[in-house]
Amino acid sequence: MTDFSLHLLGAQREFQAENLPPATSPHTGQQLRRVKLELQVPGDLQDDLENELKGAAAPAGQPLAGEGTTWLVTSHSYSYTDAAQPLVYTHRLELQEVEELRATAVEVAGLTLVPIQYKEDVDEETLLVTLVIDVSGEEGERLEELIVTQEDQYVDVIRRGVSETPVRMRFGRCLWQQGEGDTRRHNLTLVADEGQPDRPLGFAAINQPQLGRTIEKTVANAKALDLLVEQLRSQGVLTEEAAATIKAAALPHDLTLRESREFCRTSKIENFWR
């Protein structure tokens, strides 16, 4: 047994804990401490303690503060004796140390990206890295080239400040927002699933393949319209001003409420009655 400190019910509390075999971090490969302990609380504190422990449950709970580190609850049970007065609850916990996963930079195929926001998750043993970055100029062009040319190709990724060991990853969902000038803000997901079997599509299959065909048609129509306007302008059928006006109207834009209403139209409204 070893002395163990944990912040519970608004105060730092001291316990005797049993060390368990460490766990291997799926993020860094480091050994993470594990402990088991038992504590008792009177009945009037039972709900507060149970809620606090549930809120700290692995893998995505709010960690409990310890001495120099934080902990997630990996196992929790409790018992009580009806005849005992006053009523006392006995809780049995297993806790696992939480490691800090804050990358100072992410190197993707030699391109160094400095995250504004950063997080890591593990989904069915697959490492997922999500980061928000601002890029511009040559750096932005290099990133965009990587995204559009790599597709499902895997590249070396180093998460500086987390692990210096390169991980083979691919781009997942890559969102972007136009900023000032040529600056773009990207929300990137990197996925380390090389060599793993393809997963079922799940929610990604909703409205497919219809949605995919609609996107293809939209892109083809946009290209055809741009080509048509350019042909008519070059042949003198459209003036420069008219061509510019048509192209401006075809640019993507935030929909007005009136424009959005058209996407609420259905030919069978009874299908949406619940």
TrEMBL record:
It comes from Streptomyces lavenduligriseus. This is Uncharacterized protein. It comes from the Bacteria.
